[in-house]
Amino acid sequence: MLPERQCCAQLCPVQTTTMPPKTECLQDRKWWCFLLSSVFTFLAGLLIVLLWRFFAFLFTRKQPAELAAPGCPNSEPKKEPKRQGKQEFEGTFMTEAKDWAGELISGQTTTGRILVVLVFILSIASLIIYFIDASNEEVERCQKWSHNVTQQVDLAFNIFFMVYYFIRFIAASDKLWFMLEMYSFVDYFTIPPSFLSIYLGRTWIGLRFLRALRLMTVPDILQYLNILKTSSSIRLAQLVSIFISVWLTAAGIIHLLENSGDPFEFQNQQRLSYWTCVYFLIVTMSTVGYGDVFCQTILGRTFLVFFLLVGLAIFASSIPEIIELVGTRSKYGGEFRHEHGKRHIVVCGHITYESVSHFLKDFLHEDREDVDVEVVFLHRKPPDLELEGLFKRHFTTVEFFQGSIMNPIDLQRVKVHEADACLVLANKYCQDPDAEDAANIMRVISIKNYSDDIRVIIQLMQYHNKAYLLNIPSWDWKQGDDVICLAELKLGFIAQSCLAPGFSTMMANLFAMRSFKTSPDTQAWQNDYLQGTGCEMYTETLSPSFTGMTFPQASELCFTKLKLLLLAIEIKGEDGRDSKISINPRGSKIQASTQGFFIAQSADEVKRAWYYCKACHEEIRDETLIKKCKCKNYVGMIMMETGMLAHNYNFEVATFRKGVRAIQMVGRANDHPPPTETPPTLPKRVHNIRGDVGKEKEITLLGNKNTPTAMPNSIMSAAKQVNKVKPINRPADKGSPNQNYNRAQQEEGSYAGYQLAYEVKKLLPTTRGGSAGTNINSNGIQIGIADDQAKDFDFEKTEMKYDSTGMFHWSSAKSLEECILDRNQAAMTVLNGHVVVCLFADPDSPLIGLRNLVMPLRASNFHYHELKHVVIVGAVDYIRREWKMLQNLPKISVLNGSPLSRADLRAVNVNLCDMCVILSAKVPSNDDPTLADKEAILASLNIKAMTFDDTIGVLTQDETAVTKQFDPDGLNCAGGPIVLQRRGSVYGANVPMITELVNDSNVQFLDQDDDDDPDTELYLTQPFACGTAFAVSVLDSLMSTTYFNQNALTLIRSLITGGATPELELILAEGAGLRGGYSTDESLANRDRCRVGQISLYDGPLAQFGEAGKYGDLFVSALKSYGMLCIGLYRFRDRSSSCDASSKRYVITNPPDDFSLMPTDQVFVLMQFDPGLEYKPTSRNGGRAKDDNS
């Protein structure tokens, strides 16, 4: 039977079903093991924490009981130190461990930031491993851990997460709450299953999708790394991270439930990939629900019902906010991309269409040499449509970013630390200038705090606010930091117009970039003016061919050969570091690589000064052919070394004697210091038009009617010589004071007329006999000196003083009451050749800094007798607030009145003044900005409508009194009083006047006889061309001028402020005003600097050029003979002598050398300081008084 059975078994084998090992393994599901491992881990940790708290509670409860229970008193002290020491050790150890763990997990330290970033990266890596397993595998899989690479990598990550969990546990202040945190549950359900998979030899995809919740930490990490800095970007990152985290986590739950099926049979599962679940959830949350994918399991549907409540809320709230944040994100909120090798500047402050258009028009002007600079504007508010259109028109060179200059994040966005400079614009029309300045100074502080070495150029409204900039530690004017004080420069321009009418227009046109186009259709005077407006100020290094020349030689060569006007040079100090700008220096020689300051039409023209080579270009007559030559680099130096340039031109510098005028004082209050004046212009004859003598000034000699011809010859010769200038050959060495004194005595004969003419002005009859101003001349004749002259020239009691720098005249402080005039006192004071300041101000109006107007008129390069008296007409309550800064400046009077009162204007002899300045300190109204100039315009029209008597105001005095006064012995040699005065204007329209305007458009209301279009630019209008109007808007161009040439502002400030220096700025910053100082050789040497003046061609030393002369001949002659540098002309607008001719003049800047001159022209010159012959009054014993310093 056995063999048969074996045979049957072989022939008919038994059929049995065998299952694959993988399927057989999955018959017994172990998902509950993985799940329980996570639950037990959580419960075990929770139990440990609760037990710890329980025992700690019992211990803390038992300890007070032991302390309160009676026991052995001797044993307690022994136990207590041990227990206390143990507690201190435990407390110290736990505290240090907690602090150490807290530093590790926080983002405050470098280690903490690295750890936080590393945890996030590994969490995302673990999530990616989950994505891979969920896409390729089933929910549960039987595979040995040693063969599963993804599980091995994930286990390594989980070991790191476990260590990080314990660090967080130690750092937690409340352990129980830490156990219940969301990220703690993430660790519970992801870390233990990875360890259990090694033991079971299988993997369960489980709840590893919870790692997606780590995406919620993205905003925190980006903040730790200083990537997210704005609130909107942080909020956007939070919303996006929450939405994505919830979305991916819910997709993982659906994937797990649908691929597992319902417990416990797990028969209704469906195969869905993880990304299908992601698609399904986004469609469901958006309430679309296409129906192509749906849940089959009961658990999946149940979860979906509850999830929709949360998901719809998140979707409905987060998506609109995300879209809003993304959609409303400013298009100007990006970051500036700095191109390598290209410079850029940052402009902030007052950014409006008007300010930006003025700035860009000048900054990007075609006359500038290749401007390869990008302009980046930073402002808090987005630009309006008009400004946006302006940016689009300049999109290649201009960018705008929205942000605050006070925010370092925004400074980083515009790359301030890499910028070439930062410019801060001010609002010139603000209602509170001090608040505007404070805001701009804070901007500078923010910029300097972010980058202390960046160059900053700032506009300020008020002069006294400049002191606050000096408090910034990194503010350094030597490194290019500069401040453009609008009040200082504006009033400085106006002050120079008091000395040389029209000079403000000339200077304003020089530093503004403008192109001129003459036309045959326009009037001749407009073409001449427009040609001058095309001139700008440039700097260029002088070629080696100039080395060794004196400044007059170099200036003559530049004008005649190169068609350039050389104004100044930069003179380096002995150490080669410090340098100063010297304007028309006397006797300075050009050194190698000297920087020159030129007036020219374009930057290309100025290059001729660098290209010029004596060897190659000396014979060239056409200046346009002067180009760079091959020998330029060395021939000039060789010629200089071999002495080929050593031509000794003896340039004789003449001393100008100014025209003399007299002021007669009658019936004044005894305690009032009367004004005195002799202007620094040459005498001019009267050019009669329409019976008016207001155009020119004249010297009139009035004698006694009874003895009209009894004038001594010496006085007649003095009257003749005031119109002549005799060149003086000065010795090379200065010599000692005694030598100068002897030289003065030797030349006394030839200059007797000069000295007598000088004294004639001072010798006026007084109304009080035996006054303190009585001197005895060398002939023993008692001569009466007017009260004001007695105070000015009583050298035995006072001496002339200057401020501590020697740059300005200074006097001891006077109270305001001493200088106040009432209308009667002013009317009885025959003022002449003075400056009238019509000031509109309320008692609480912002201070405008009147010191900046008066200081240029008190420069020390004027002699004391040349100082123009300043009479301020306005509210004394306002002037009292300004007086602290004016009390040390001599020759100031105040009339408490109204500039609109004709009686007050007549009292101060506005028709006899050298200049009438109309200013307003009132705050413009926001309602209608065009009304800001209403007071100034009304005052201007009021003066122009006035008429005056055609007299010179000399009152007839009793002949007997005059005879006694002049000739006590009865020998009347001179006849009557000798009064030298300018004749005043009969018509108010001919009164020299300059009006300050706030709005440019209001210039059309100043002249009723002009035909200017209201839309005409300010510089093209007749009042501005004639120098009778000035607006602060013309100073906008100084920002770009200062950026391209930091020395240009120093030159302009030196010209218009009378010589303000950085040292003086520091003194004035103290707030105590000018400080007087004893005269030293060094301070007196500061007086020897050039100043602005006006010379007439009608008579005087240059009269020969008035008749059909050429400007080039005038330029060379004035430079060689008198050291004067001619810079322009002031010409009558109407050249005819008809009755309808206007007395207005206009400015011609740097005319060409072949420009024809007219006898009525006046010439703008930079004249040398004239030490002259000092006035030496005789003492009572017949000896000479000691010299003054004037």
From TrEMBL:
<keyword id="KW-1133">Transmembrane helix</keyword>
<dbReference type="Pfam" id="PF03493">
    <property type="entry name" value="BK_channel_a"/>
</dbReference>
<keyword id="KW-0631">Potassium channel</keyword>
<keyword id="KW-0851">Voltage-gated channel</keyword>
<keyword id="KW-0597">Phosphoprotein</keyword>
<feature type="transmembrane region" description="Helical">
    <location>
        <begin position="31"/>
        <end position="55"/>
    </location>
</feature>
<dbReference type="GO" id="GO:0060072">
    <property type="term" value="F:large conductance calcium-activated potassium channel activity"/>
</dbReference>
<feature type="transmembrane region" description="Helical">
    <location>
        <begin position="236"/>
        <end position="257"/>
    </location>
</feature>
<dbReference type="GO" id="GO:0046872">
    <property type="term" value="F:metal ion binding"/>
</dbReference>
<dbReference type="Pfam" id="PF00520">
    <property type="entry name" value="Ion_trans"/>
</dbReference>
<keyword id="KW-1003">Cell membrane</keyword>
<feature type="transmembrane region" description="Helical">
    <location>
        <begin position="191"/>
        <end position="210"/>
    </location>
</feature>
<dbReference type="InterPro" id="IPR047871">
    <property type="entry name" value="K_chnl_Slo-like"/>
</dbReference>
<dbReference type="GO" id="GO:0050804">
    <property type="term" value="P:modulation of chemical synaptic transmission"/>
</dbReference>
<keyword id="KW-0472">Membrane</keyword>
<dbReference type="InterPro" id="IPR003929">
    <property type="entry name" value="K_chnl_BK_asu"/>
</dbReference>
<keyword id="KW-0460">Magnesium</keyword>
<feature type="domain" description="RCK N-terminal">
    <location>
        <begin position="832"/>
        <end position="981"/>
    </location>
</feature>
<dbReference type="InterPro" id="IPR003148">
    <property type="entry name" value="RCK_N"/>
</dbReference>
<feature type="transmembrane region" description="Helical">
    <location>
        <begin position="153"/>
        <end position="171"/>
    </location>
</feature>
<dbReference type="GO" id="GO:0034702">
    <property type="term" value="C:monoatomic ion channel complex"/>
</dbReference>
<feature type="transmembrane region" description="Helical">
    <location>
        <begin position="298"/>
        <end position="319"/>
    </location>
</feature>
<keyword id="KW-0406">Ion transport</keyword>
<dbReference type="InterPro" id="IPR048735">
    <property type="entry name" value="Slowpoke-like_C"/>
</dbReference>
<keyword id="KW-0479">Metal-binding</keyword>
<keyword id="KW-0630">Potassium</keyword>
<feature type="transmembrane region" description="Helical">
    <location>
        <begin position="114"/>
        <end position="132"/>
    </location>
</feature>
<dbReference type="InterPro" id="IPR036291">
    <property type="entry name" value="NAD(P)-bd_dom_sf"/>
</dbReference>
<keyword id="KW-0812">Transmembrane</keyword>
<protein>
    <recommendedName>
        <fullName>BK channel</fullName>
    </recommendedName>
</protein>
<keyword id="KW-0407">Ion channel</keyword>
<comment type="similarity">
    <text>Belongs to the potassium channel family. Calcium-activated (TC 1.A.1.3) subfamily. Slo sub-subfamily.</text>
</comment>
<feature type="domain" description="RCK N-terminal">
    <location>
        <begin position="342"/>
        <end position="484"/>
    </location>
</feature>
<feature type="transmembrane region" description="Helical">
    <location>
        <begin position="272"/>
        <end position="291"/>
    </location>
</feature>
<keyword id="KW-0106">Calcium</keyword>
<keyword id="KW-0813">Transport</keyword>
<keyword id="KW-0633">Potassium transport</keyword>
<dbReference type="InterPro" id="IPR005821">
    <property type="entry name" value="Ion_trans_dom"/>
</dbReference>
<dbReference type="GO" id="GO:0045211">
    <property type="term" value="C:postsynaptic membrane"/>
</dbReference>
<dbReference type="GO" id="GO:0009410">
    <property type="term" value="P:response to xenobiotic stimulus"/>
</dbReference>
<feature type="region of interest" description="Disordered">
    <location>
        <begin position="68"/>
        <end position="87"/>
    </location>
</feature>
<feature type="compositionally biased region" description="Basic and acidic residues">
    <location>
        <begin position="76"/>
        <end position="87"/>
    </location>
</feature>
